[in-house]
Amino acid sequence: MGVKEIRIVRSGGYVVHVDICVEVSMECVKEVHKLYYATKKELSGFVEEVVPGVSSLAVYYDPRLTSSEQIESKIRDLWLWARNIELKDLYRPRKFTIPAAYGGDFGPDLQSVAGWAKLTEEEVVRIHTSRAYTVITLGFTPGFVYLGEVDPVIAAPRLETPRVRIPRGSVGIAGRMTGIYGLESPGGWRLIGRTPLTMFDPKKDPPIPISPGDQVEFKAIKPEEFDRLVGVFVGDYTA
Amino acid sequence: MTTQRSLQVVLAAGFTTVQDLGRKGFRSLGVPVSGALDRLSAVYANALVGNEPASPVIEVIGSLAVKFGVDTVVAVAGGYPRVFLNDVEVRPWNPIYCSRGSVLRVVPSGVGYVHYIAVSGGVVCDKVLGSASTYVRGGMGCLGRTLKYGDVLEIGLTDVVDVWGRVSDLKPPQQLVEIHSSIGKDALTLRATEGIHSSLLSDVDVLLRGEYVVSAESDRMGYRLEGESLGSAKGLGRLPSTPTDRGYVQVPPDGKPIVLMSDAQTTGGYAVALHVVPPDVDLLAQLSPGRRVRFKLVSIEEAEQEVRRYLDELEKPRLIREELEYWG
To answer: Which chain B positions have a beta carbon within 8 Å of A9's beta carbon?
Structure first.
């Protein structure tokens, strides 16, 4: 689905919300990233924060310094401009490799994903580790990374009943998205593995080096290697 | 307990944390802003003891008693709880001189829900990403958890005699104290703009018609409301995750609205029907489960005006000298 028009909604007296598309697609995600980096670059110092969603973004502003009309008109200009350039002109995406142990206690839902896909667990792991994913956004909880797009063959839907507690580092699948839980939290994604890396460390600057538009690949590791890598910060790891 | 610059928790029942005005600038990493549920009350508590508006304060939901290891000045603001200094009842919304070894006790009175204890010099706590606000789900800020019996918190350095001289006759605006001392009696009107998904919810008017009751399943992340549900939310199901913020009125498929509060997740997949303006989120925070609210739609221009006034007041609370009140 092509992205033609953005929809801007002003909200609460301090938020300008921009919907970039209705249906989520990687094409739309790319447009979100372009507008995100363009807005961040052009409006920083002038707005409080720019936050991307999966198909939208929000600009938080101080109405004493600017108005929603002003921000809206700037975003419309940026949109027209950003449409005709490439993401790499605004942001140089980085590549990350995330080691993960799959199945068993590390990924209690690997079996159900394999069952859903009518594949063996090994095949699911092979498919999951065989492509680089684009970082769609970070959100939900500190350091939760949304990645896409998962091979439709293993794109099992989320659990009917979310888990109350998911260990940090867990790698999950929810339809065409895969993701990493930065901290322990509740959640409904199907857990297929877990990374030993520390994905989010508030003492680091930045606490997580991964940004929207970056590329993430998974690498299957054995439980022994998992133990060896526990606590290594994601920004310090090299495959 | 020692003669250190510290206070010790001698009773804790409920959900009590250290908060400031929140952790801004990290939403795009998924980090909630957190901070005081009722920011204006936290700021006034600070102002009444001569602190900077954003100094860390103790947010009490429930009961708390603390013993001071040093002479200090404190103030309790937010709602209208019962406050005791060494078992003698004292007034909230007022500076209180506490001698070393004295015990300050805050007990719910049924008027208001979250109460702030500011201590002159501020509570000195571990800051995470620039803020001492405790985000319990992420284990971040200050102790990373609720306060419990025996906890000791450091108090920032101040000259207490000098502070007392400057603040002892300070009072917050009478109107603010009046609002807080009767909050929850009648249904609270929450001014709100349309939300980012108002146009997707065909029956959004339902929210503007009736009264809603604050549910017992409310917490620092969101206040759930009971009342007429929105049928149109059911068909929407899960939307692509969009950025969310404090004051967003989310409507999950069950049609029951949730007003997001300070620990709100940074993105969410539920339809957002309305956006409550920030000063009214502060007041909503003061409603205990069972209290009633209604929504009133306001324009963006009106909301911007309210936000300007609110941000000015957070930065510069409007205190008055006691003798001035007779000048009308």
So the answer is: 194, 196
